[in-house]
Amino acid sequence: MQSFVRDGLVYGLEGAGRFDPSEVTQFYARDEWPNILRRYANVDQAEADLARIVSAAVSHLAAARAS
Question: Are 38 and 44 a contacting pair, CB within 8 Å?
Answer without folding.
Answer: yes
